[in-house]
Every structure is written in C-alpha cells, then in structure tokens.
Amino acid sequence: MARAGLTVDRLVAAAADLADEAGFENVSLSALARHFGVKDASLYSHVRNLNDLRTRLALHAGGELIDRIAAAVAGRAGPDALAAFAGAYRAYALDHPGRYAATQIRIDQALIADSPAMRRTAEITYGMLRAYDLDEPDLTDAVRLLRSTFHGYCALESTGGFGAARGVQASWDKAVEALHLTLTHWPRERKNDD
Fold first, then answer.
1. Which fold has domain 58-184?
2. CA Rg, the chain, in Å?
3. If 180 and its partner were Cys, which of 75, 79, 126, 173 is the partner (CB 3.0–4.6 Å)?
4. Burial class (CB in 10 A: 0-12, 13-18, 19+), 151
5. How many CB atoms lie within 10 A of CB 52?
C-alpha cells in the first residue's frame, strides 16, 4: 500500500484491527509500517511514538465502547439500563479483545479531560446510575464497583477462567442482578457531623 493517503485515523484504525488480531501488546510501529508497506520512520509524521499511538488507540476504542453502550441503554432506566449497559460492555470486550485491552491502559488525565468520548462515557455512566439516587462519593464508589466487576468478569471469561458446568451467561445475569440489588441498597456515605 502506498504511503500517500496515510493519516493518523488510518493508522489508529489499522492498530485497532491489529490489536484484535494479534493482541494489544503486539501493536507496534514496525508492525503497522509493514502493514502499510512503508518504513517505520514515515509513521513519525503522524504519531510521536508508540505510546502516542497506543493512547490514540485507547481513546478510539473507548469511543467505540461508549457508542455501543449508549445505543444499548437508550430509552432504558433502572435495572433494564444496567443490564443493557453491562451487556454492551461485555459484548465489546469479548468481540474486540485487543481494542478492549487498550481501554484499560493508564491515560494522562489532561487527555481524558479533552476527549469527547471520555466525557460521553462519564455522562452515560452517571446517567445510567441516576436511577439509584447516589451522590458523591457514593457515585464514584459505584462506578468503580461496576467497572471492576465488568472488567474482572470479562477478563476471566476471555481466558476460559470459568470452568464450572453452569453457563457463563446465567452467572453473568445473576451478577448484574446482584449489582442492581447492591446499587438499590447502597450503603450511603455518612456525613461527619463535626
């Protein structure tokens, strides 16, 4: 493929595909240069370095993930919204393992603040949790509970970590139901009366 037409967006899209095919840890500038039939050095006019490429990939994948979640939760509230949110999250993680792995890297907070996808993620997540009437710091704690539960389940499922005879979907459904019950009966942060 000729170098003409090489853009940051094309590099990130190719990196996303490579991540899903070969694993996020195998995304490299050399692999992308081979894919496009160019020398490694020609990529540096589009990305600063591998970290820049991986950060862009993480933001791209985060945008894809929240788009899928937003479509799933549209018009839903309460336990239906939670189940739709959880299902879309899990489906993305399983359908796009490399892209999903990219969403788990640590990104500079300034980049997160400037990212429309990351702002949208917060809006949709907090919007879905609005039905549970949580205030800070409980809201932050609830978001952390959901993320760690969803991520842990998906990580274990993707590596075949569930060996029991019970279906994985049935256990997932119970986990989401348990999260709904937990959110409904959330142990509220007590205000200090001092």
1. Tetracycline Repressor; domain 2 (1.10.357)
2. 19
3. 79
4. middle
5. 14
